[in-house]
């Protein structure tokens, strides 16, 4: 039996979901996500910035106007939606199809690298986070807005049980230990802000 490449499987899932993705997330976006995105974007520093997993482009309206952003996505259909959203937004952004695990950028290139709700779906999150460290300049920053496995043992067990179903439906893992993965990838945590209990966090490394 031919083995399916994990990145190909993730790409296909998000291509399939692209046409309903914004509609599905609209309630959460309206209630919380949009304000959290704005908080993260206020921490972006430097002239060269990389967004990993731009998706349909929900962060685009929050981009600072005085920086150059390269934004990547694995799914071409999600990227098409991001390009449409970028129309009429007058700032310096380049949208590219690319895998977070294999970035086509030189070492020490970006002042800030960031992602919002992405490392729940990267097939090998530690590999992806190491790639971000490779392309980030010494002294640069990593900013993540992520949901992850709760610390409560009972809730964590429930998330583990539900995870396979959620992955099949939405492509996202709900039981990733993202804070631990950041450390495994060689980053140093500077700030960890709890946004929704310990399930959603803003991480600055």
Record the strand order, biggest sheet.
Answer: 3-2-1-4-5-7-6
The Rg value, from CA coordinates, equals 16 Å
CATH topology: Rossmann fold
DSSP strand tally: 7
- Class inferred from helices and paired strands: alpha/beta
What does this structure look like?
This protein has helices at 6-41, 76-86, 125-135, 153-170, 178-184; strands at residues 48-52, 68-73, 92-97, 110-116, 136-147, 191-196, 200-204. With 205 residues, it is of the alpha/beta class. Strands 3-2-1-4-5-7-6 form a seven-stranded mixed β-sheet. α1 packs parallel to α2 and α3 crosses α5. The mean pLDDT is 92.
Question: What's the helix and strand layout?
Answer:
Layout: H1 6-41, E1 48-52, E2 68-73, H2 76-86, E3 92-97, E4 110-116, H3 125-135, E5 136-147, H4 153-170, H5 178-184, E6 191-196, E7 200-204
Parallel strand pairs: 1-2, 1-4, 2-3, 4-5
Antiparallel strand pairs: 5-7, 6-7
Helix pairs in contact: 1-2, 3-5
Key features of this structure:
205 residues, single chain, Rossmann fold, alpha/beta, globular
Sum this structure up briefly.
The protein has five helices and seven strands; from the N terminus they run αββαββαβααββ.
């Amino acid at each position: 039996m031919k083995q399916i490449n994990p990145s190909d499987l993730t790409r296909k899932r998000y291509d399939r979901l692209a046409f309903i993705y914004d509609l599905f997330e609209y309630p959460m976006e309206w209630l919380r996500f949009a304000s959290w995105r704005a908080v993260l974007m206020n921490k972006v520093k430097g002239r060269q910035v990389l967004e990993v997993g731009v998706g349909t482009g929900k962060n685009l309206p929050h981009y600072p106007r005085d920086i150059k952003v390269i934004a990547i996505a694995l799914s071409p259909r999600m990227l098409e939606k991001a390009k449409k959203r970028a129309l009429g937004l007058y700032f310096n952004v380049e949208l590219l199809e690319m895998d977070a695990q294999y970035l086509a950028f030189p070492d020490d290139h970006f002042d800030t690298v960031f992602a919002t709700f992405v490392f729940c779906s990267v097939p090998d999150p530690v590999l992806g986070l190491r790639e971000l460290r490779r392309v980030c300049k010494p002294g640069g920053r990593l900013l993540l807005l992520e949901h992850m496995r709760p610390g409560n043992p009972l809730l964590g067990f429930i998330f583990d049980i539900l995870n396979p179903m959620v992955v099949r439906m939405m492509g996202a893992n709900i039981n990733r230990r993202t804070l631990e993965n950041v450390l495994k990838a060689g980053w140093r945590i500077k700030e960890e802000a709890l946004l929704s209990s310990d399930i959603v966090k803003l991480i600055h490394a």
